[in-house]
Amino acid sequence: MSQPRVPGGDENALELPCGEAIGVGELDLGMREYECDCGEAHAVVMDVHPPERFLPDFLVEVLREAIETTSEEMPEFDTPHLLGVVLEEFPEAVVAHDASENADVGYAMAWVTEFDSRRLHEVVVELVVELMEHAVSHADDDEALSAFEREMVEFDVSEFVEQYRDERDLEAEDPYA
After folding, report:
1. Which Pfam families match (predicted)?
2. How far apart (Å, rounded) are the C-alpha atoms in residues 48 and 18?
3. pLDDT confidence of 8, banded at 50, 70, 90?
4. pLDDT by residue (tens digit) across 127-140?
5. What pTM was estimated for this model as a whole?
């Protein structure tokens, strides 16, 4: 059962999307999901987790080459940018926590979602596909756009995520998972 608290009153507490609250120290670097008192599993992502948690290496490299960021602190496309896209699309389903002033936790940013880790993985892939389609549509190359759209019709996000997770063995003890 969650403990009642004044919103914003405790820097060491994080209110989850479901309304439960946990201590920020309960999140550890290897955690991908938090089994909540609400009965659901919430995906946990930290800035130290690589984007390869969700996407193959080659695609991360393509995104890094293609996407210019405006952040001086994070000049290279990385996990915070992926979670920023998720947060923008699902603002009520994601809680972000800035722990940059808290040297005790080992991470600077953490995100906890109402989704479990598998569903979050699917959401990330879906949003990256949308981002890629948007980029191709601005290329003024109707043939490239048509080819991309043909390939995406056959692309099954759930199947991709299943295969990628099997390949990465996300159930193993892996701090990068």
Report:
1. DUF5815
2. 24
3. very low
4. 999 888 887 777 77
5. 0.83
